[in-house]
């Protein structure tokens, strides 16, 4: 408590100066809140980019994933020979290795009849390749020709179709000039690459894409024996398989997809740049407020200097104003994105949520933003000479 003694006796000049000009204070807080909202939205969209594009990866029923060395991301996986799956059986610790097919197609929304882009996944329905609640019970339906189950979290108008399917009435529509039946629903969510997902058997997948051959697969999903070490099996597979296939643990496969959207995709760069621009906008706004305040009270500051107050005390007043602006500007700046996230989530079906880590990050950036602006605004104050003022 002794440490706080000098602060308790100190007159809160920073707060008194800010509160004296209430209009200027309101404008400053609005500017900081605006910058915070921009940072929250940019960081939120960037996080949803990574989460939505790796949500399928996180549900894969596999310990190790095989993919083509030409693969760039989930929408551009390329293919490799199915024979590599048979070769994995030579490695101790490998339990099963299943093929996984994925592609995108335009289909007609069964409700609006408008074409939209969805991704189609095909695998052996007797051994589910995806871990999602309730999915295993519906997979026997996709053994019927041209029968699919559809993602309830897809982007678009599907409410009437979902209601019919929930009542046990399959819905028919058209995809690439074939009539297909939607016989069930699961829930995963849309992504930046596709508006929704269809799941079917590997046989139906090949019927839907007649140019694809069963021996040409997109992913190989490997499950290990319970006592197997994934790193050791990965090392053994890399030494055993030719270089026309890449071997990754499931965690490495998720990191591979995230790295694409974070580094190689222009979308990830744009969101990062947007966050930086919001920070710069905030610095400019706070600097304008504090600089105006210093200019308006320069005579008072000069009087303090003439009375013997050190620069350190006067700089403390400006930084006090900066911290007050950061704290009070952050509060509306953190509340508004809650509603904007909900609005954007409803409109885009993307996973946009406020997180504690993001709130702490933006608060720290706000304090740094205001402190940096205060440091710039105090340059004139440090050079002020009382003899020049009177």
Would you kindly provide a written description of the structure presented here, covering whatever features stand out?
The protein has 390 residues and is of the alpha+beta class. Helices cover 54% and strands 17% of the residues. The protein has 15 helices and eleven strands. It has helices at residues 5-9, 13-20, 22-59, 83-88, 135-138, 159-166, 202-208, 230-240, 250-264, 266-296, 298-306, 311-348, 356-377, 379-383, 386-389, and strands at residues 64-67, 80-81, 94-108, 115-123, 147-151, 171-175, 178-186, 197-201, 216-217, 219-224, 246-249. The strands form two sheets. A nine-stranded mixed sheet has the order 6-7-5-8-4-3-10-1-11. Helix 3 crosses helix 12 and helix 3 (22-59) runs antiparallel to helix 13 (356-377). The longest helix has 38 residues, at 22-59. The two termini are 41 Å apart. The model has no long low-confidence stretch (mean pLDDT 87).
């Amino acid at each position: 408590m002794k440490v706080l003694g000098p602060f308790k006796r100190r007159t809160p000049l920073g707060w008194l100066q800010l509160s004296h000009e209430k209009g200027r204070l309101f404008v400053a807080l609005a500017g900081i809140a605006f910058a915070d909202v921009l940072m929250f939205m940019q960081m939120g969209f960037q996080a949803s980019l990574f989460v939505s594009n790796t949500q399928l990866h996180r549900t894969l029923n596999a310990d190790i994933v095989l993919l083509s060395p030409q693969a760039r991301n989930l929408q551009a996986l390329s293919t490799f020979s199915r024979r590599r799956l048979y070769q994995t059986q030579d490695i101790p610790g490998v339990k099963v290795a299943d093929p996984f097919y994925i592609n995108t197609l335009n289909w007609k929304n069964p409700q609006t009849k408008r074409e939209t882009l969805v991704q189609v996944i095909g695998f052996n329905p007797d051994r589910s390749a995806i871990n999602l609640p309730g999915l295993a019970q519906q997979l026997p339906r996709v053994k019927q020709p041209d029968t699919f189950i559809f993602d309830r979290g897809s982007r678009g108008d599907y409410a009437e179709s979902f209601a019919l399917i929930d009542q046990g009435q399959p819905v028919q529509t058209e995809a690439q000039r074939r009539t297909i039946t939607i016989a069930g629903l699961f829930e995963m969510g849309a992504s930046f690459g596709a508006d929704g997902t269809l799941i079917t058997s590997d046989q139906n997948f090949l019927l839907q894409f007649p140019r694809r051959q069963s021996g040409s697969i997109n992913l190989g999903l490997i499950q290990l024996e319970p006592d197997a070490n994934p790193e050791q099996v990965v090392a053994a597979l890399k030494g055993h398989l030719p270089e026309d296939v890449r071997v990754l643990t499931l965690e490495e496969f998720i990191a591979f997809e995230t790295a694409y959207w974070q580094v190689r995709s222009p979308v990830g760069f744009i969101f990062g740049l947007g966050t930086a621009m919001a920070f710069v906008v905030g610095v400019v706004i706070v600097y304008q407020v504090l600089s105006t305040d210093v200019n308006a009270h320069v005579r008072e500051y000069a009087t303090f200097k003439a009375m013997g107050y050190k620069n350190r005390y006067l700089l403390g007043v400006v930084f006090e104003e900066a911290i007050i602006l950061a704290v009070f500007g952050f509060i509306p700046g953190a509340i508004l994105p809650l509603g904007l996230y909900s609005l954007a989530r409803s409109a885009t079906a993307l996973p946009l949520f406020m997180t504690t880590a993001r709130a702490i990050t933006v608060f720290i950036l706000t304090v740094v933003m205001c402190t940096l602006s205060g440091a710039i605004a105090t340059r004139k104050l440090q050079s002020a000479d009382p003899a020049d003022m009177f």
